[in-house]
Amino acid sequence: MPLLPDADPVTLRQWYPLGMEEDVTTDGIVTLLLGEEIALSRAPDGTIRAMWGDRPLTALLRYGYVWTSFLSDGTGHDLVPVIEEAMEDDRRLVCCGSVMVRASALRVVENFLDMAHFPFVHTDILGAEPRTEVERYSVETRKDGQEIWAVECRFFQPQAALSADGGLMVDYIYRIASPFSTLLYKTCPEQPGRKDVIALFVQPMTQETCRAHPVMFLLDGNSDRDALVAFQQMIFLQDRTILENHRPEAMPLDSSSEISTLSDRSSVAYRRWLRAQGVTFGASRPEHRDRGDMIGASRPARHDGRGA
């Protein structure tokens, strides 16, 4: 079977999660990846396999999800993000299911990086008026330019976590580990000297649709698992409403097509990094229009208080 004509080389060689390991039964499930149907099934001995038509793909189990790659020859597992905290014995792995989004996978990653929308989309949970200002933070590249990190991020949150008792100023570190994987390291209310980790692994189904797979690596050992999953799903479903109103569904990589502010530094760096990497899957193609016609034209009026 020929390799996908619409996928750029960087997108093609990535590893992607297709669903929670516990959801794959002997009946199997079918999902889309880069426009192609992938079938997952579990053998009687518990082994999970992935099939692309009649071609077997490597099924890799990592962080509670089943991952695969179209270039799966048993090597290249290092392209699955390495999360050192996942190996710590006192952390809980909490897989939060999968959510379908009618938007580019790149837009979903970008939204995850955005603190400015907290008071307006996640009101009285991750943010609240009048404390809407995003403090200046720094963006840097690491691992020889293969990752982007946003550091020294701080934001006041009325309920920073399900276990939080009252509001607090939360320290954030954002990590873009691959074009379709991003992580957040944030203040743990129970252990202020350490950070909880929330990862968002995004499965690009088509150019303009995706599934988001959120997973948490928590130091909170007491909260009910179902309550934790419900809390995280509620936050993401609030985001989905905004994401599905972006136009075009694919994400422009041309910085002139949308207005940016200082709070968008990580977003600007992400788009610039995608262009440098040569990622085009899920990115909208630039149109030859007047700059004046393009400003603010690719997304609806914003619901996060930052203008059009």
TrEMBL record:
Keywords: 2Fe-2S, Iron, Iron-sulfur, Metal-binding, Oxidoreductase. One of its GO terms (molecular function) is oxidoreductase activity. The keyword Iron-sulfur applies. Residues 15-51 form the Rieske domain. It holds the Pfam family VanA_C. Residues 284-308 are annotated as: Disordered. InterPro entries: Cholesterol_7-desaturase (IPR050584), Rieske_2Fe-2S (IPR017941), Rieske_2Fe-2S_sf (IPR036922), VanA_C_cat (IPR044043). PANTHER family: 3-CHLOROBENZOATE-3,4-DIOXYGENASE, IRON-SULFUR DOMAIN CONTAINING PROTEIN. This is (2Fe-2S)-binding protein.
